Amino acid sequence: MLCVVRVVSTSQLPIDLVGQVTAALPGTIVEVPPVGHVGLAGVDLRDADALVCLLLDKIDAKLLASAPKLRVVANCAVGVDNIDLAAAAAAGVTVTNTPDVLTEATAELAFTLMLAAARRLGEGERLVRSGAWTGWALDQLLGVQLHGKTAGIIGFGRIGQAFARRALGFGMRVIYAGPHEVSAEGTERVSIDEVFARADAVSLHCPLTPETRHVVNAARLATMKPTAIVVNTARGDCVDEPALIDALTAGRLAGAGLDVFVGEPKIDPRLLSCPRLVLAPHIGSATTEARTSMAQLCADAVIAVLSGRRPPNVVTRTA
Ligand code: NAP
Ligand code: GLV
């Protein structure tokens, strides 16, 4: 019996997955939705050999059991908290992600949020657009200067270090917390609690794990300077959102910038009216360059596994 190889993608991609896979592996059937993201409900995995998915797609043991031929899940994201890695390993499914190619884009967005929160850009933009701005005033929208201050980084991996390079370039000191000492000039490794107590801006760049869930919580926020800023481009659950809302509302924190949310795309309505908060719709890696390269890494991974080769970027633990 002829055994047909099938590749399915839950999303349209900015590369020609069909062309690339069929050129490398003639006869392979490749299914890509014509537009947007159809999700796991929109694809037939029963006899699929390879899956390209987004961070929105939850890959758990039940899903894997419904796809008995699956050999590779290529996650078009670096974070893999949407995938049960143990279940994938037990099912013999290779999981890949898309590191490095989105590092600079995500660090740029985190830095953008830090600057926007420090200089109250969201409030300023809303003021100008409202037509209520009456002109320059000596005490208008005073923010905090970052030059000479301390950036605190939780998770000193690829994106955390890229954020640090930018902070150093802005004349900031850099302290970081992470499982390992990293030799990077001008930086100092401290405990997580020390980052919150000492930093003028804390930026999260850790994966979402049981240890990093609510790494920003009421107790740590209470130790921060009232002039400090919190930035989260990691994952929504890394922040206890009600605790952050309380701190901002009470004026115990100068500002925050969030790109990721608990239960996104639903947003706690209190975040929408929370003072001193800059919001972005999970666009850390949203540059044409990064997204195209991410999709290409997924295509490379699928082709490698289906050709019997080990792909780059195999994930064996939460990235
Ligand atoms: P990475 O290179 O693996 O860096 C993560 C760092 O966090 C590693 O150094 C890791 O240390 C450290 N870490 C792990 N557990 C920790 C803990 N409990 N406390 C402190 N640090 C801890 O990953 P990356 O490429 O920089 O990406 C980081 C995360 O950013 C991703 O997992 C994803 O959730 C998020 N992200 C978001 C966007 C967006 O669009 N907003 C885009 C890209 C990535 P070890 O290596 O020693 O474990
Ligand atoms: C985006 O959030 C990613 O993990 O790539």
Order of helices and strands: EHEEHEHEHHEHEEHEHEHEHEH
- Specify the overall morphology: elongated
Please identify which CATH superfamily of the largest domain we are dealing with: NAD(P)-binding Rossmann-like Domain
Q: Mind describing the biggest β-sheet?
A: 7 strands, parallel
Count the domains. 2
CATH class of the largest domain: Alpha Beta
Gyration radius (Cα, Å) is 22 Å
Can you give the helix content as a percent range? Answer: 25-40%
Give me the count of strands: 12
What average pLDDT do the residues reach? 97
Strand order of the largest sheet: 8-7-6-9-10-11-12
Q: Find the structural class using helix and strand composition.
A: alpha/beta
The name of the CATH architecture of the largest domain is: 3-Layer(aba) Sandwich
- Strand proportion, as a percent range, falls in 5-15%
Per the CATH scheme, the topology name of the largest domain is Rossmann fold
Low-confidence residue ranges:
none
Helix count from the secondary structure assignment: 11
Terminal Cα span? 40 Å
Bound molecules: NADP nicotinamide-adenine-dinucleotide phosphate, glyoxylic acid
Descriptive overview:
There is one protein chain. This protein folds into two domains: about 5-100 and about 290-315, 3-Layer(aba) Sandwich (Rossmann fold), CATH 3.40.50.720; about 105-280, NAD(P)-binding Rossmann-like Domain (Rossmann fold). Helices cover about 30% and strands about 15% of the residues. The protein has helices spanning about 15-25, 60-65, 85-90, 105-120, 120-130, 160-170, 190-200, 220, 240-250, 270, 290-305, and strands at about 5-10, 30, 50-55, 70-75, 95, 150-155, 175, 185-190, 200-205, 230, 255-260, 275-280. A seven-stranded parallel β-sheet has the order 8-7-6-9-10-11-12, with helices on both faces. It has a five-stranded parallel β-sheet with strand order 2-1-3-4-5. Helix 1 (about 15-25) packs parallel to helix 11 (about 290-305) and helix 4 (about 105-120) crosses helix 6. The relative contact order is 0.15. The mean pLDDT is about 95. The structure holds NADP nicotinamide-adenine-dinucleotide phosphate and glyoxylic acid. Glyoxylic acid binds near residues 55, 78 and 284. Glyoxylic acid binds near residues 55, 79, 102 and 285.
